Amino acid sequence: MQDRFAGKLYVDTSLDYVTGPIRLSLDAGVENYPGEDRFDRYRINPGATFDLPIAQNGRTRLRIGAGYEYVADNDERVFDRGRADVQLIHRPSATHRTVARVRYGFRNQSERQFEGFDQQEWLAELSHVWRPVGTRARVGATILGIRHDADDDRFSHTGYGLRLTGGMPIGDRVDGRMRATVMRRLYDDDFSAELPLDRKDTRIDLSTRLSLALRGGATLFVEGGYVDNRSNIAARDFSGVTATLGLRWTLRAHRRDQSRR
Hints:
The chain is an all-beta fold. The chain has no helices and 13 strands. It has a single domain, classed as Porin. Strands 1-2-3-4-5-6-7-8-9-10-11-12-13 form a 13-stranded mixed β-barrel.
């Protein structure tokens, strides 16, 4: 049993430029852990999406996207990743939204901590979000499958799972969110030469977050949760309570091409 309590500080910026069906974006962020600077991360993430309506009523569209992510710590690059995805988005009504998605990525990991961790990443998911009439609540469910092919087979794995989400504003400045995820992962090769077992994990993540909107784009949040990772590898079998108290600043700019109107 492991209980983890951490303080985090985030600073994020987001720039969007929209022209017709095209959206260009640039996200950058800093994640700081006071007293634990080895976990600090600096991230930049440019991307683009293109929306293509495929139904005359506008309720169904195809979204094609691509992006690049670069993450560093206080010393050097941790990893970089390129991604491309296709989404089929259907809104049968104002209160329901269904999305089918396939995403491909390639993660290029720094060799400082891991060797053989460079990998191709596949994700397939089907999700649905429902917003009950007469409320500001939202409820979602996602079925997902993953496949990671790493240079070293002991990092390669196949997974599948289910995620349930819920959220609701509480007043004008407070927002509440809940999430429950169950994932099963089956690894391709022996965990190590000393422990020649194919690793099998079942992970349960439960979390609840309350966020308070402050002035100047700042948000104060508190999150509590529980993690249970059941594994046939003793070193990877753990469970515990998690708690996070954080302050987040978001600087956001959005521009729409007026000449297209």
